[in-house]
Amino acid sequence: MTPDASVPDTLRQRLRQAGLRVTAPRLAVLEWLAEHPHATADQVATGVRGQLGSVSTQAVYDVLGACARAELVRRIEPAGHPARFETRTGDNHHHLVCRRCGRTEDVDCAVGAAPCLEPSDGKGFAVDEAEVVFWGLCPDCLVASPTTAAHHHEEGRA
Amino acid sequence: MTPDASVPDTLRQRLRQAGLRVTAPRLAVLEWLAEHPHATADQVATGVRGQLGSVSTQAVYDVLGACARAELVRRIEPAGHPARFETRTGDNHHHLVCRRCGRTEDVDCAVGAAPCLEPSDGKGFAVDEAEVVFWGLCPDCLVASPTTAAHHHEEGRA
DNA sequence: ACGTAATCTGGAATGAGTCAAGAAAACGAT
DNA sequence: ATCGTTTTCTTGACTCATTCCAGATTACGT
């Protein structure tokens, strides 16, 4: 099946330029993900199924995996939460993650260009990425929080 | 059973001060962990069993969980690898993690005291921690690596 | 239009971690 | 020292996210 022609050509081109075949699931995943950043694999699957009718879970993981390898999508795996995906790649931006609900937001690198890119002592590692995650509670969970601001670590991570 | 008297009193005191009961599994976990930083729950269980004879997996998770809540141990969960634990808490230090084998090393905060502690735009989140992970290949995996330095992202993340 | 290699389907399996119910042990007061 | 209460440990089943497998399908280069 030649995939839906309504999808912007740019997506097709990006896939092709990355050496990936253009398939309906891939276009749908990329398109949906662009509109819903920081979605989980499950959310992507649901969203894509709403457009294509049915797509296997495996296909979703394959697409996400292939696109992540090709750097068309970026995978974030916040501790204690399922992985999340976004189409913003290339710029070394960081994330703000809610401990409670997992809501994730982008944060531009605080200290300019590449401040956090080199550890003080690399111990012989070939470092290729500095990942920064700001942990806290999102506005919604702050309001819904049973423990008032007085306590500091009453929560316990899920 | 009154726990083994050979364990340094400081461990007992730390547990008590944290409001936790002093039990053999807890002492053993803390003691073993102090000597083997960045161990996985499974490794902790194995190590502790070597000292106490037998300890349930659940007990190990409970101990680690309780101690993490009391900030006697810190839990690190590098994406794609099982959680790791360490007894160094309080100092906001960061980590160097090997993408391939998961080997984890401590890194002092590169930029001094609290440079990475505040995101440029918090979006209303109540941020309480800035986690920094430097990803790369450890010296051993660098040597064992099939792809020479020429390629850049041929690996694919587990 | 064809052949082939890459991709998708469906279902089973894995691994890390958690839940639940009851037995056991530590703490605090008597 | 002993008792009762409360926390902690044991055993075993279970969840969730993700991966593995074998076979059917499909996109792409010629």
UniProtKB/TrEMBL annotation, chains A, B:
One of its GO terms (molecular function) is zinc ion binding. Its cofactor is Zn(2+). Its main location: cytoplasm. This is Fe2+/Zn2+ uptake regulation protein. It is found in: Cytoplasm. One of its GO terms (cellular component) is cytoplasm. Pfam families: FUR. InterPro entries: FUR, Fur_C, WH-like_DNA-bd_sf, WH_DNA-bd_sf. Belongs to the Fur family. CDD domains: Fur_like. Keywords: Cytoplasm, DNA-binding, Iron, Metal-binding, Repressor, Transcription, Transcription regulation, Zinc. Zn(2+) binds at C98, C101, C138, C141. GO terms for biological process: negative regulation of DNA-templated transcription; regulation of secondary metabolite biosynthetic process. Binds 1 zinc ion per subunit.
